[in-house]
Amino acid sequence: WSWRGVKRADQTPKVGGPMAAVYSTELARAISGLEPEETEEWWVMDEFIEELARYNRKNPKKAVTLDEVIWQDYDWKENSRLMDGVQHIRKILKANGFSADTPQVLVGWNTDYTADNPAPKSFLEHANYVAANIVEQLNLGKEGIARAYLWPFDWDHEYPNIAVVTMPYPEQTYGGEAGTWEGEFGGDTQTIPAVTKYCKRPKYAVLEMLKSLMPGRFVSLDWPEWSTIAAIGVRDDGQKRISVVLVNEGDSAQVAAI
Predict the structure, then answer these.
(1) Are the CB atoms for 31 and 4 separated by under 8 Å?
(2) Nearest CA to 53 among 101, 98, 87?
(3) Hey, which bits of the chain come out as E strands?
(4) Which of 51, 61, 62, 119 has fewest C-beta within 10 Å?
């Protein structure tokens, strides 16, 4: 009904889904630690695409489109985390009669937080993870992600060190009674301490560095599959230069040469 309402009013907007927190049911179960029988009624990426295809087969005259596949990824680990998600979704789309090239939109990704790696990292480590994630997205090429959005917290309380910048604002308290929207997490209140100054984090510098590559065009780079180093290169014919950015996705230092 939502799809019909939007398309009836205006054919221009794209309608997508399912805004899943991870890219597959199998991954969601692995992260949750729940048994399969405990997740039979889950509605994740696989179920959404399969059910949409089933509806279209039963109702060919009322078939709906899937203009974009929208997902989040809170299991950012290992070197192929994004490629695994992109390839899985392409496979599910094709198996259910949708175009494998349906644009994929990644929303709300927050650097490296995972169920088994919740420990806060340093400013520089977070900046490095952001750089690695963006470089990997760019290296996915035409079969990759159409758009990706970073959720840039502007405080360092609940998720220390993750902000791109911190913005001044007074102390705030959130929460409410259990059963209400404000008390979604059991009614507990949470106080966000006051932020007293505007401050740019190393992550800001990373984004500025990557922005400087925009005038160029991609050049092909090769590096060993086992390496935790990711790289991206662009050629700027106007400036007569090639710029290469190297990022280390691992936890230990690496020596690299171009």
Answers:
(1) no
(2) 98
(3) 16-20, 68-71, 104-109, 147-150, 165-166, 172-174, 190-192, 199-200, 217-219, 229-236, 241-248
(4) 61
Nearest to 68 by CA among 104, 94, 38, 37: 104
Question: Are the beta carbons of 243 and 212 closer than 8 angstroms?
Answer: yes
Question: 156: helix, coil or strand?
Answer: coil
Per-residue pLDDT of the chain (258 residues; tens, 9 = 90+): 788 888 889 888 888 888 887 788 887 777 777 777 776 666 788 989 999 999 999 999 999 999 999 988 765 544 456 777 888 899 999 999 999 999 998 886 655 544 445 455 677 777 777 777 777 777 766 666 777 777 666 666 555 556 788 878 788 776 655 555 554 545 566 677 788 888 888 888 888 888 888 877 888 877 777 777 878 888 988 888 888 888 877 767 777 777
The residue type found at 35 is: E
pTM score, whole prediction: 0.70
